[in-house]
Design brief:
It is a single chain. This protein is mainly β. Strands 2, 4, 5, 6, 9, 10 and 11 form a 7-stranded mixed β-sheet that branches. A 4-stranded antiparallel β-sheet has the order 1-3-8-7, with no helix packed on it. Strand 9 and strand 10 form a beta hairpin. It has no helices and 11 strands.
């Protein structure tokens, strides 16, 4: 079992920045990939960014350049730096972990943190 706890959401104005944190209950180096997803009201959950344990990063094309995923191995924490926020970034942001137990890929979710962008 991997427990994920997100923090850092809140209210921001367009153009401002927020940093989300996701602390894992286990070493993130043992987790195959950690990701951030988001779900806006009335929309499906979508992938925002992924960070693989070997260091490769992936981003949603529409967010590349504004959002950055990073990690602190010592703190077992993954971050999502969100810059130049837009109204459309309003959503619940979820931390996701995928890890192998033998040949089985297990998936875990955090509870989510709300980000609201409003002028």
């Amino acid at each position: 079992q991997v427990r994920l706890v997100e923090s850092g959401g809140g209210l921001a104005q367009p153009g401002e920045s927020l940093r989300l944190s996701c602390e894992a209950s286990t070493s993130i180096l043992d987790i195959y990939v950690m990701s951030w997803y988001r779900q806006a009201p009335g929309k499906e959950r979508e992938l925002v960014a992924s960070l693989f344990n070997h260091g490769m990063r992936n981003y949603a094309d529409s967010l590349r350049g504004r959002f950055t995923i990073s990690r602190d191995n010592a703190q077992n924490t993954v971050y999502l730096e969100m810059n130049d926020l837009e109204l459309e970034d309003t959503a619940v942001y979820y931390c996701n972990a995928k890890t192998y137990r033998g040949t089985t890929l297990e998936e875990y979710w955090g509870q989510g943190t709300q980000v609201a962008v409003s002028s």
